[in-house]
Design goal:
Layout lengths: L2 H27 L8 H16 L4 E6 L7 E7 L11 E7 L6 H6 L5 E3 L2 E3 L7 H17 L1 H5 L2 E7 L7 H11 L3 E6 L11 E6 L1 E10 L3 E2 L10 H13 L9 E9 L5 E2 L2 E10 L2 H12 L17 E10 L6 H16 L5 E5 L5 H4 L5 E2 L6 E2 L16 E3 L3 H20 L1
Parallel strand pairs: 3-6, 3-7, 7-16, 8-15
Antiparallel strand pairs: 1-2, 2-6, 4-5, 5-18, 9-13, 9-14, 10-12, 11-13, 17-18
């Protein structure tokens, strides 16, 4: 069967079964799976396991290391050995959790809503639409190319806590895919702007900092000159941090929270702030970390009587290293790019500022991202009648071409492995 015939049959299968795929997506969107709603996350995991069981996948549930979260889900279809060759293994990654608490969904009347080419709903594109994309691809391959499907080990991995960062899930992926793994495919949303699929080949890293200022309390009326205002000192720190942002080097700092003081008639003795930093390049990332740490022990605010000087303390709470362009990712992108050209598309390599599970394992596993359907307003639940606010949505028209591209690219990857 030549390429065009494979593509024709795959496309016909996907189109014929699209109503069934969307029905499964609607059921998933109807389950609240906010990260700290483990019952909802686990319910979605159980429903997902039932869906993939139709394709012969065996389910395994692994509790997140954080007891506040739900269970990761690993779905496996073991391949059969042919011609004495090692059985290739392909990982397909999605996640179960969303960022929407149930009360937020109810408050904003945020639920499955069809409007033209758009379907709105919590997690509909980030990332339940990506999970359905995986199911579409594997269903098509099992039906149209059963020999290729049966001779490959497929491992679908779904993170229970991706939205809050999940180092234990990254280790799980490496553990399950390090043997004959051809690639780890991540189904976060992917743009199809201008008829061109955008595939993610790089993501920024992130560092989180906590900054604390020790000041000196005093009565704001009778002993003002004896106080050293921690809030004023923090204001100076915030100004310095904001000036570290360098858009030309894709380095950003965001002061996310600030707290300080207790009552208005007291000079504040303490203030704190949390800061997030992101960068694509390792060297820029490390420079950014050093810049924040250099603020440690900064003292520019003192009491008027000179007896006390405020002191700044900075700590790195967490870091997630950047995922830069690399040879393994570029190889996978080339496979998708060549396949897109044969289908009449032009694939675009995209660098994305947000994190994904790929940040945790790209060094160990060939990884490509953005393979899910297209949509918009991810993480948004509000809706305004004047259009100034709109909820998360997925574009229905993006499912078929993206699933066809992914299916044919995976076949291309498997064929290349046999050469």
């Amino acid at each position: 069967m030549d390429f065009n015939e494979k593509a024709r049959r795959t496309s016909a299968f996907l189109e014929q079964n699209m109503p069934l795929f969307l029905a499964s997506l609607q059921e998933m969107v109807g389950i609240n799976s906010f990260t700290t709603n483990p019952e909802g996350v686990n319910s979605l995991g159980a429903r997902t396991a039932e869906l993939f069981a139709r394709l012969g996948f065996r389910a395994e549930f692994i509790q997140s290391t954080n007891p506040l979260y739900g269970r990761h889900l690993v779905l496996t279809s073991q391949g059969e050995r042919t011609n004495g060759r090692p059985i290739p293994k392909i990982g397909l990654v999605s996640h179960l959790d969303t960022v929407f608490p149930l009360d937020e969904e109810l408050r904003n009347d945020f639920h499955w809503r069809e409007q033209g080419d758009r379907i709105y709903g919590p997690g509909v594109v980030d990332i339940k639409g990506g999970t359905i994309m995986i199911y579409m691809i594997l269903s098509a391959l099992q039906t149209v190319r059963p020999r290729a499907f049966n001779s490959t080990t497929w491992v679908v991995l779904l993170d229970a806590s991706e939205e809050t960062g999940s180092l234990d899930f990254g280790r799980l992926c490496v553990d399950r895919l390090d043997d004959n793994g051809l690639g780890c495919l991540i189904f976060e949303p992917g743009s199809w702007a201008g008829g061109r699929p955008h595939l993610v080949v790089s993501r920024k890293g992130m560092a989180i900092y906590r900054i604390e200022v020790e000041g000196k309390a005093a009565h704001a009326g009778s002993a003002h000159d004896q106080g050293a205002n921690a809030v004023v000192q923090m204001a100076d720190v915030i100004d310095r941090v904001s000036k570290l942002t360098d858009y030309e080097r894709d380095l950003t700092f965001n002061v996310g929270t600030v707290a300080g003081g207790t009552v208005i008639n007291r000079v504040p003795h303490f203030a704190s702030a949390s800061v997030e930093m992101r960068a694509f390049d390792d060297s820029v990332f490390n420079e950014g970390v050093a810049s924040i740490l250099a603020l440690n022990d900064l003292s520019t605010v003192r009491s008027s009587d000179g007896a006390f000087t405020c002191r700044v303390k900075t700590d790195v709470i967490n870091t997630v290293a950047p995922w830069p362009r690399n040879a393994q990712t570029d190889h996978l992108f080339q496979v998708w790019q060549e396949t897109a050209e044969r289908l009449g598309f032009e694939a675009v390599a995209e660098k994305r500022a947000g994190l994904s599970d790929g940040n945790y394992f790209w060094r160990e596993l060939p990884t490509i991202d953005g393979l899910g359907p297209a949509g918009g307003n991810a993480h948004c639940s509000e809706h305004a009648a004047d259009g100034s606010k709109e909820q998360e949505y997925v574009k229905v028209s993006s499912f078929l071409p993206k699933a066809l591209l992914n299916s044919m690219a995976i076949l291309h990857l498997l064929e290349a492995d046999h050469e």
